[in-house]
Design brief:
The complex is a heterodimer of chains A (238) and B (298). By secondary structure, chain A is an alpha+beta fold. Chain A contains five helices and nine strands. Chain A has helices spanning 5-14, 26-52, 71-75, 83-89, 228-234, and strands at residues 17-20, 61-62, 94-105, 127-132, 143-145, 170-172, 179-183, 188-190, 199-208. Chain B is built from eleven helices and ten strands. In chain B, strands 1-2-3-4-5-6-9-10 form an eight-stranded parallel β-sheet. Chain B has a two-stranded antiparallel sheet with strand order 7-8. Classes of the chains: A alpha+beta (238), B alpha/beta (298). Chains A and B meet through α2 of A and α5 and α6 of B.
Chain lengths: 238, 298
């Protein structure tokens, strides 16, 4: 049985981490997987060119402008499985701020990123969501987090150590459709992927606050904003 | 302590005795002799240096460096080149390294799949025999990789933990259409992407056999000497690799007109003012002596 909303909010505040299993399931998950695979394939040639010109990193591949590509991607912004949690931890002042990525990460002997927080610790709340699009087993490039580190971590440097040597970390393997909400002031990373399957996931950054002005950069998502709340999250209605 | 310049080039005018490729940057009459270099080294307290081949990858093209080793024993170690179309890379390496002066080989491409999602079997990379021979003979791999080859490096480093690897010039990776020569005759990298580098080559700091050159600032910076826009990058490299795996280099002769050899020898103190003296000693020579096996000088 899953956690209650109160338990989720408590864990987010105290641990900086909430895992929502089966957040996306069934036909909806299939649509998300198909859309991801389709757009990764469509964008591959351009990505390889951008690697050669030094304009893209070879260790992650993001679908370009995913908001404009498919409604299913936008649906992950305020999915019923976790929208109440997002609203609760932001006191109903939820906005998108930060990445909106549909990402695949190739196999490499070392994890593509090191332990880091996204920002210095502060009173500001910046929840970040990671949604597994494919199954991510242990040692499969899974997301990892140091619970509670959002309350004490002041050093924003990327750690040089091997990712598996971080004290107190938890690895979050999970089935496709698992959603992980974390406080991005906490130490997090992707672990090494020793399987033969690249990890695919969505990564969405949020914040507590209000958009001060119309967010032109999200205008491409307007056609799929069927609720006032979604428009407010994106800053298409202020 | 030893003070060692861990990467630079010398070449004489093109001649029968010392044939070399003639290019816009190195026209036939251009003379960047080892004696000129030694004058700069002496004036600035640099004892030894790594001479990296330029001007052709054939055995005969390396004649001038062989002359330098023979004429000034103990002062230099060499890094050779391997022709891209060479069908016997290991044999070429052994011929050049026969007398022990050439200790390694510089590669710009690794010969694997361009698509990072493709299956990565390093045994199918075209440079695999070169790495295998490096492992057998303890040659150093000197890497100045094109941006399109960066993802291949991790697979080879992981497959050959016994091979010493030195990434040139802050791990910068020339990208397609973004490499050019400036009006001072210096190579320049337009908009080098160190954010990508941080998530790729710098991640290889967890391998003890990997070292990095602190050099080439003049080609990567958008500011005049001392290139302070690269100070954070130097601090990050020190944090990641530690001073025992960082080596200073001048990249002469390209720096002679600007900022000059003497200024290059002071660049680490300029960019890393808080560095400890033992770390500075490592970067300015002790690391190169240990990692590359330079002999003691009398």
């Amino acid at each position: 049985m899953g956690q209650t909303l109160e338990e989720q909010v408590r864990d987010f505040r105290e641990l900086g981490l909430v895992v929502i299993e089966d957040a996306i399931v069934g036909a909806e998950l299939e649509r998300l997987q198909q859309a991801t695979d389709y757009w990764l394939e469509q964008s591959k040639a351009d990505w390889l060119d951008r690697i050669a010109t030094g304009d893209a990193c070879p260790l992650w591949f993001d679908v370009p402008d995913p908001m404009e590509k498919e409604e299913i991607f936008i649906d992950m912004l305020d999915h019923p499985s976790y929208i109440d949690l997002l609203l609760a931890v932001t006191n109903e002042e939820l906005i998108m701020q930060g990445p909106f990525q549909v990402r695949a990460t190739p196999l490499w002997p070392v994890a593509y990123t090191a332990w880091h927080p996204d920002r210095a610790r502060s009173d500001q709340i910046h929840p970040k969501m990671q949604i597994y699009i494919n199954d991510v087993p242990e040692k499969g490039g899974e997301f990892a987090f140091v619970p509670g580190s959002h309350l004490w971590c002041d050093d924003t440097a990327y750690r040089r150590q091997r990712n598996n040597t971080m004290p107190g970390h938890v690895r979050l393997s999970g089935k496709a459709g698992t959603a992980i909400l974390f406080d991005n002031a906490g130490l997090h990373t992707a672990m090494e992927n020793e399987t033969d399957t690249p990890r695919k996931s969505m990564i969405i950054g949020f914040s507590k606050g209000r958009h001060a002005s119309y967010q032109e950069q999200f205008a491409g998502a307007q056609k799929w904003c069927r609720s006032s709340r979604r428009k407010q999250i994106l800053g298409l209605e202020v | 302590m030893a003070r060692i310049d861990s990467h630079l080039h010398v070449f004489p005018p093109h001649s029968e005795e010392f044939p070399r490729q003639v290019t816009e940057a190195a026209p036939a009459q251009r003379d960047e002799s080892v004696e000129k270099l030694l004058g700069e080294m002496e004036a600035n307290g640099i004892d030894q240096a790594v001479l990296t081949q330029t001007g052709g990858a054939g055995i005969e093209d390396h004649a001038y460096l062989q002359y330098c080793f023979k004429t000034y024993p103990g002062r230099f170690r060499g890094i050779g080149l391997i022709p891209e179309d060479c069908n016997d890379g290991p044999g070429h390496m052994d011929r050049l390294a026969a007398n022990g002066d050439f200790i390694g080989f510089r590669l710009k491409r690794l010969g694997g799949p361009a698509d990072p999602f493709a299956p990565m079997d390093v045994r199918r990379f075209t440079t695999y025999p070169i790495w295998q021979r490096a492992a057998e003979k303890d040659y150093v791999m000197w890497l100045y990789l094109r941006a399109s080859d960066v993802h291949l490096a991790g697979h080879l480093v992981d497959a050959f933990p016994q091979v010493r690897v030195v990434f040139n010039h802050l791990c910068a990776t020339p990208a397609k259409g973004k490499f050019y020569w400036d009006e001072k005759g210096r190579p320049q990298l337009e908009s080098p992407d160190f954010f990508t580098t941080m998530h790729t080559l710098y991640r290889l700091c967890c391998y003890e056999n990997v070292a990095v050159h602190l050099s080439g600032q003049y080609a990567c910076s958008r500011e005049p000497y001392p290139y302070r826009d690269l100070a954070d990058l130097h601090d990050r490299l020190l944090y990641s690799f530690g001073s025992k795996r960082l080596m200073w280099a001048s990249d002469a002769p390209w720096i002679y007109p600007d900022p000059g050899y003497g200024a290059c020898t002071r660049i680490i103190e300029e960019l890393m003012p808080a560095i400890r003296s033992d770390q500075l000693d490592d970067i300015m020579g002790n690391t190169a002596k240990e990692f590359l096996g330079f002999p003691d000088l009398d």
